[in-house]
Amino acid sequence: MELEKAVVRKARRGNDEAFLFIINTIKLDLYKTAYAYLHNREDALEAVQEVTVRIYQEIKKLRKEAFFKTWAIKIMINYCNDVLRKRKHTVLNDELVHVSGKADSYTLLEIEDAMNQLDQRSREILTLKYFHDMKLKDIAITLECPEGTVKTWLNKALKSLRKLLDEKGGMSHV
Amino acid sequence: MFEKEEKNLIGWKKAYDELLYPAEDIDAAIQAGFQKGRQQKKKVMRKRWLYSSAAAAVFFITFFVSIRYSNVLANYIAVIPGMEKVVEKIRYDKGLLAAVENDYVQEVGVSQERNGLKVNIDHVIADEYGMVLFYSIESNENQTNYQIHDLELKSAKGKDPVMATSGYGVDFPSDTPRNKVDTTAELFFSEPLETTDFILDLEVGTGTQKEQFEIPFSLNKSLEQKKTYEVNKTVSIEQQNITIKQVEIYPLRVAVTLEMDESNSKKILSFDDLRLVDEHGEAWTKISNGVTANYINEHEQILYLQSNYFKEPEELYIVLNRLQAIDREDDTVVVDTSTEEIVKQPKGDLLSDLEVIGNDVWFKLKTEKEFNYSLFSSAKDANGNDYYHGNMVEGTVENGKQRMGVHLESAKVANPLTLELSFYPEWVRGGAKVKVK
């Protein structure tokens, strides 16, 4: 962690090699986040490129070096939300159809669909917490709000998700 | 409490972990993003220049020039609303500042709105052969990216102005979203204007929107006539003969027509230090941001200086010292874009590190000081097609090397590609003074 912090600090000061090093440590996280939001390869790759530009330009402003990854993923989520706002219709993730099929009691596509319908804040919290296994404390620091607030958001998000899933599974999962 | 939902989310994440990821494509996207970020790092004003005839332009202005405004100008700024913005845009051109000082600016104040985007034409400085338009773009929403395309000046009645050069654009996309940008367009004509009623056509784009505008506007002040001096005197600098044929003084700029001797051993690329000087030693130098020259033919060109129209000097001289020049056989650079190799370049090998990124061909130029000129005037492939339309890209100076390049209209060229040099950091030096009046 300390080593990573030192490299992030170098990157912040404009060292390009340090930047490439740290961006490479999180490239899969960036891609996966984009893919989970946008559901297709081309858009996810474009997102990775554009977000790399943004991270490069904004890194000077990163205040907490230890939280580079969370901060970068947050930028990716913002980017994806912008793209989704401009998109006219939802895109189904057809690759996911071919994987195992079910996540516990619901199909993956049902979960995806529910995630799509969530409000931005809820989706962001669930993505950070479950998709990236982040601690609530770290999320709170990155979003610059008290941990209690994050907990409240998380509860609200899970509640919304339950409601959306219940609507879907109402028939087949009774 | 939410065990079931949590289980489902964990299962969902696992499914993503099992997917195969396009590792190479991701690496390429990261690289491309990194390169793009680096190129945008240095945010300088970049305008798109269109050439209807061969012309040269300086693409860079020093942002932190301090100019002491005269008392007249300071008063003018204070009493006339909006004048501060005008002066801000032309502070690097003493001729245009003098036009403002002499109340030669025209207020226009017309605007047009299309779906939440608005264009306002605020002020104009015009003469018979040119026009500087001061306009702004407003959006309902904050935007980081404003683009202007296809800006054209039409006549509201009668013959359209014949465009010689036009330059327009907005600052680079900036970090801070803005709902208004102020900018300028500089239009020059090859024939005198025949009307005072115009229509400005342009397309404005933001990241998400594109709108067409056709804005009618009129000039209400009469346009001043040019003053012409026939000179026809020849000077010699390092055995290169140059004839100063004619000096025309317009309110917007001064045009000096020069002819190079066909037997000169060098091709003169640029008159870096050519000035008008009056009897008190006051000097008017070259245009520092915009069109600096027009090429009539291989041996003849028109050079543009900041205007002294609003001064009436007793005596007037042209002084020239330093010229950018290269040996005739060295006037092109030949490259292969497929292998990223420089096949031929002028003696001294100042160019290196050829890199092709998308449609951009990048070089590194060895230079001690930043070299703020567009290197090339054309890029012809093996079939003789010119892929360069004056759109150049420019990067940073690192370790004595400056990154700069050209944007090609297509990346599919038949190699080799021959780039004609328009500027190059090699000089001949000497002094000459010629009386104009």
What is the chains' assembly state? heterodimer
> So what's the CATH class of the largest domain in chain B?
Mainly Beta
Q: In the residues of chain B, how many domains can be counted?
A: 3
- Going by CATH, the architecture of the largest domain in chain A would be Orthogonal Bundle
Strand count of chain A = 2
How does the helix and strand content of chain B classify structurally? mainly beta
The CATH class of the largest domain in chain A turns out to be Mainly Alpha
Number of domains of chain A: 2
Task: Give the overall average pLDDT of chain B.
Answer: 84
Our estimate of the beta-strand percent of chain A is: under 5%
Q: Which superfamily, in CATH terms, is the homologous superfamily of the largest domain in chain B?
A: Immunoglobulins
Q: Helicity of chain B, in percent?
A: 10-25%
Q: How widely separated are the two ends of chain B?
A: 93 Å
- Tally of separate helices of chain B: 5
What does this structure look like?
The complex is a heterodimer of chains A (174) and B (437). With 174 residues, chain A is mainly alpha-helical. Chain A is 73% helix and 2% strand. In chain A, a hairpin with a 2-residue loop joins β1 (102-103) and β2 (106-107). Chain A is globular. Chain B is mainly beta. Chain B has three domains: 48-218, Immunoglobulins (Immunoglobulin-like); 227-328 and 427-435, Immunoglobulin-like (Sandwich); 329-421, no CATH class. Chain B is 14% helix and 50% strand. Chain B contains five helices and 28 strands. Chain B has a six-stranded antiparallel sheet, with helices on one face. In chain B, strands 2-17-18-13-12-11 form a six-stranded antiparallel sheet, with no helix packed on it. In chain B, a hairpin with a 4-residue loop joins β20 (332-336) and β21 (341-344). Chain B is globular, with a radius of gyration of 25 Å. Chain A binds chain B through residues 16, 19-20, 23-24, 27-28, 31-32, 35-36, 41, 45-46, 48-58, 86, 95-96, 99-100, 102-106, 108, 111-112, 115, 126, 130-131, 133, 155, 158-159, 161-162, 165, and chain B through 1-2, 4-16, 18-19, 21-22, 25-30, 32-34, 36-38, 40-41, 175, 208.
